[in-house]
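Quiz preparation item.
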């Protein structure tokens, strides 16, 4: 303050004019600066607001669009053992762009670069493995790492068509015939309800004959027949009592065995004929009756063609000839022809019963498409 006053006093003492001039200089320049400052600011503001040459004036609220930076997608493919899956095909689909494909390296890794951001779909496949799929969304500039992909072994679907041989088919059909019992207990093995059965092999023909003669009902039926013969005193030379009944029983059972094996096994094997009755089940009653009666002298061959039934006819008289050896001498007269004709007659009548009656009396019988009850 002291210094300031001294300087001012000195200036005032030097003369009024000089002091006035200094005063005007010291006071007038700030006023001039203040007076000129707004004008300079206006000029600068105008220059700042003026648009660039050749351009347009931008609106204050306008924003520049954000640039979408591409990203990368990578991952690793392994198998169930944990080993790297080399050579797996990895397909990338995104937007409307064509899909891209790469193969995984020896370390199982794969990578896609410069992928536009947005949803994407990966399909990973390899021979012998089930296809794996993955969906994700890639953000701008993101390095997307797909979780480790484990390929599982593809489930093998093998279609196996098992075709049975004709012999195997015949075996299955015969097993079904063993279940055929009238009223549930009377064996009815020598009829087939299959529309087109497989021909019997020689082995099956003998098996059928054996099963028939050893069936418990066969022994019961033979015993009943022997009892009737004894009651009527047929083959009187056999006598009465237990001994006579035993002889009659033996002769009757001998006839059954001889007739069954000769007419249904031995001769059918030699002549290649089928000893079974083939159930018809369709057509008029008259045609079915004629068909049933004819089966006494007509049969199917192993070639599935109808032919004369040599096995049945020759077997009937061959059985009579064999019975000639064990019947009493006084009862042998005409036994060959008598037994042969009776056997053929029985076959014809049995055919009619097979066609119209027996099937209805057989429980649990397997049905077939071309048969009618």
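Solution:
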């Amino acid at each position: 303050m002291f210094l300031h006053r001294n300087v001012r006093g000195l200036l005032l003492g030097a003369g009024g004019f000089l002091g006035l001039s200094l005063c005007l200089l010291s006071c007038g320049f700030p006023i001039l600066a203040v007076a000129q400052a707004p004008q300079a600011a206006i000029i600068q503001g105008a220059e700042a607001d003026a648009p660039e040459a050749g351009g347009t004036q931008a609106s204050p609220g306008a924003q520049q669009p954000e640039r979408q930076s591409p990203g990368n997608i990578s991952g690793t493919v392994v198998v169930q053992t944990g080993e790297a899956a080399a050579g797996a095909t990895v397909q990338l689909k995104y937007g409307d762009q064509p899909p891209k494909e790469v193969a995984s390296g020896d370390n199982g890794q794969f990578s896609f670069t410069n992928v536009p951001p947005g949803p994407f779909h990966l399909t990973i496949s390899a021979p012998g493995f089930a296809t794996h799929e993955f969906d994700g969304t890639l953000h701008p500039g993101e390095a997307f790492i797909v979780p480790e992909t484990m390929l599982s072994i593809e489930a093998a679907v093998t279609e196996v068509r098992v075709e049975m041989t004709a012999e195997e088919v015949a075996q299955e059909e015969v097993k079904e015939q063993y279940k055929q019992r009238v009223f549930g207990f009377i064996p009815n093995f020598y009829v087939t309800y299959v529309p087109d059965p497989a021909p019997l092999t020689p082995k099956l023909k003998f098996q059928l004959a054996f099963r028939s003669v050893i069936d418990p009902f066969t022994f019961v039926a033979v015993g009943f027949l022997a009892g009737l013969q004894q009651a009527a005193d047929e083959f009187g030379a056999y006598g009465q009592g237990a001994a006579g009944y035993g002889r009659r029983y033996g002769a009757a059972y001998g006839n059954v065995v001889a007739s069954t094996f000769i007419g249904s096994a031995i001769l059918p094997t030699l002549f290649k004929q089928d000893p079974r009755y083939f159930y018809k089940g369709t057509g008029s009653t008259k045609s079915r009756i004629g068909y049933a009666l004819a089966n006494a002298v007509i049969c199917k061959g192993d070639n599935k063609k109808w032919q004369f039934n040599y096995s049945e006819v020759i077997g009937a008289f061959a059985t009579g000839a064999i019975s000639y050896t064990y019947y009493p001498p006084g009862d042998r007269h005409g036994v060959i022809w008598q037994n042969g004709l009776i056997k053929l007659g029985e076959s014809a009548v049995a055919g009619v019963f097979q066609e119209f009656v027996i099937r209805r009396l057989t429980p649990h019988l397997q049905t077939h498409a071309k048969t009618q009850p």
